[in-house]
Amino acid sequence: MPIVIKTDNLGKKYIISHQSQERYTALRDVITSNTKKVVKSITGKYSILPAKEEFWALRNVEFEVSQGDRIGIIGRNGAGKSTLLKLLSRITEPSEGKVAIRGRVSSLLEVGTGFHPELTGRENIYLNGAILGMGKHEIKKKFDEIVDFAEIEKFLDTPVKRYSSGMYVRLAFAVAAHLESEILVVDEVLAVGDSQFQKKCLGKMDSVSSKDGRTVLFVSHNMGIIRNLCNKGILLDKGKVNFQGSMEETISTYEYENQNILSIWKNSKDTDKSEFFDIEAVTLLDEKGSSKREFFNSENIIMKIDLMVKEIHSKMLILLFFTKHGETAFTYPIFLASKDSLKKGRQSVFLEIEKFLLNEGTYFITIDNSLHCIQGLTRYENILNFEIRFDKMEGMPALENVPGYFFPLLNWRLEE
Predict the structure, then answer these.
(1) Segment 345-358 mean pLDDT
(2) Rounded CA separation 278/291 (Å)
(3) Cα(379)–Cα(386) distance, integer angstroms
(4) Which residues make Cβ contacts (< 8 Å) with residue 182, sequence separation at least 6?
(5) Helix axes 165-178, 195-210, angle to 10 degrees
(6) pTM given for the model
(7) Residues 158, 121: Cα–Cα separation, whole Å
(8) Are 219 and 85 in contact (CB under 8 A)?
(9) What phi, psi does 103 have (nearest 5°)?
(10) What is the dihedral of CA 211, 216, 221, 226, to 10 degrees?
């Protein structure tokens, strides 16, 4: 098959400013600033961080994509996945190197990308088609399919700024998938939609690739979905291509390299901040308060979440626990709605996962920082993982490869 995408020494550099741009000045900032002035007056100089520094989101990225390939791009947060898709979609220009693309690219990267908020859904369909270089007649042929797929016929003549995030994504994906582009680029924005629509989207991506010969590039943290959809994979790590090959080999490499993630996750300063509170750190502890990531099924697991509360508001954390195959083991919401329990400043939330609950295996933790049950405001993907092993208990046979997510200790009895 012909090569449709080829990158050569591709790189993207950003300039990071370390000057404070906070909405308010905290007491600690005043103390820090005054301390710097005192030190400078004594020593004549001080330097903690430069005002600006270079950050390479991608560096020396080289790969080829053939027509009809379904490429899964995986990696931890900050690996450069979204930046790569923006370069391939021509949303941003590379700082070095080049990318050659053969064919029209249709992309769905963020909610609202490519839509004008003041225009109606109908008008935005024609606008997106025109951006792709399609004529009015070509767009009209696909129009009914797009509206039917997006399921927004009732709101077709409503400005999209009044759409919910789910409606936005449904229409955006329908436009991207149905208009005549040779390459479809999709970030994990589909997570905003409901599970039924996600399945519909995944089926459509599989169809346009296998039947129409279109190329699909898909970023996801869900290994189950990406394993089923994609035939080839690219693993990014700290802005560089760490591995490329079959999707199964790529996922195996990713899982092997992340099996020893530490039991403490600390939020970087580059992570998007929430208006109400930030998650500063997450730690896995045993009952003695020791930090670790490997537990027997006979041990309780304590999860400590450190928060910096900025404003008191009715919010909740959605904790999602995934298996190593990307399947959801279980979900748990923590409501932070009580003003008695939530206060401004630093505060910690403790969650206890009881012993004899989970089956043997590796579990990955994702946290959604949500407002009034609206997901996707701030999402901390795969920040930690932990291992559950069967304890050798008296009177119990040796067990391994037991199916299922849970292995609870249940009471049972015999009766004559």
Answers:
(1) 90
(2) 22
(3) 19
(4) 4, 67, 102, 103, 104, 105, 214, 215
(5) 10
(6) 0.63
(7) 6
(8) yes
(9) 120, 170
(10) 30
